[in-house]
Every structure is written in structure tokens, then in C-alpha cells.
Amino acid sequence: QLQLVESGGGLVQPGGSLRLSCAASGHILDYYTIGWFRQAPGKEREGISCIRPKDGYTYTEDSAKGRFTISRSNAKNTVYLQMNNLSPEDTAAYYCAAGPFYYCIYHPMRHDYDTWGQGTQVSVSS
Questions:
Q1: How many CB atoms lie within 10 A of CB 91?
Q2: Would you call 87 exposed, middle or buried from its count of C-beta atoms within 10 A (0-12, 13-18, 19+)?
Q3: What is the DSSP string of 105-116?
Q4: For strand 120-124 and strand 10-12, is the pairing parallel, antiparallel, or unpaired?
Q5: CA gap 55, 72 in Å, rounded
């Protein structure tokens, strides 16, 4: 059974950077889409970016382009989210999720991915 574990969150000052990791176990990620989502208190969950680890195909929401970059290490069975120039508005719980292989192309930011991690908290404050 596929399991996902996020890490790398924390407290950072405005303008700072963080790299989140999504480590998978139980299955290799070649046949999945892996997405990053976030949810701030009182707000709906929103999609950020997704990747197909097998071929490296990526999709990133317009709101995240230029600051957030998704990548993967197939050797480590891990997907990353590099976040730069963070602002207080980026404060949220960040989740990775696994969905069907075709999702990143046809349904990139749908919220019905099959498997979710427990989340990692990112707080941006001075």
C-alpha cells in the first residue's frame, strides 16, 4: 500500500525559501501523478503543482509559477516542492497526494487524488 510522508515545513521569514519533501513507500512512483496542495485556516484546499515521476511531466498553477518548483528523485522515490520568496499568504498546511498516472495531464489539480500524506505546516512570519 502506497504511503506518503511530507517533511520540510517550518517557520520562515518573508522572502525566505523552503523545500518540502514527499517521500513514498510501499510502491514506486513511476505509475502515479504526485500533486502538492495546501490549505490555510478557514480556506479551501488549493492545488499548487503536480508531476509524473516516470517521465518528469509537470503542471503548475499560474499562481505558483515563478516561485514554486516541483521536482523528483526517482532513486529516492521522493517528490519535492521548492518554494521561494515566501510571503505570509503562503502560510498553510501543505500536502502531497498520489493519483492516477494521467491526472497531471488531464485533471492536474482535482482534489480526488487517492492517497494523501499527513501534511507539513509552513508558517511565514517575521
A1: 17
A2: exposed
A3: HHSTT-S--SEE
A4: parallel
A5: 10
Q: What is the DSSP letter of 89?
A: G
In this prediction, residue 96 carries a pLDDT of 98
How buried is 81 (Cβ within 10 angstroms: 0-12 exposed, 13-18 middle, 19+ buried)? buried
* Alpha carbon distances (Å) from 10 to 16, 20, 30, 56, 116: 11, 10, 29, 27, 20
Task: Identify the residue whose cell numbers are 510501499.
Answer: 26
88 DSSP assignment: G
Q: Tell me: the pLDDT tens digits for 75-110?
A: 999 999 999 999 999 999 999 999 999 999 998 889
Half-sphere exposure of 61 (CA within 13 A, CB side): 14
Q: Are 48 and 60 in contact (CB under 8 A)?
A: yes
Cβ burial of 101 (10 Å; 0-12, 13-18, 19+) is middle
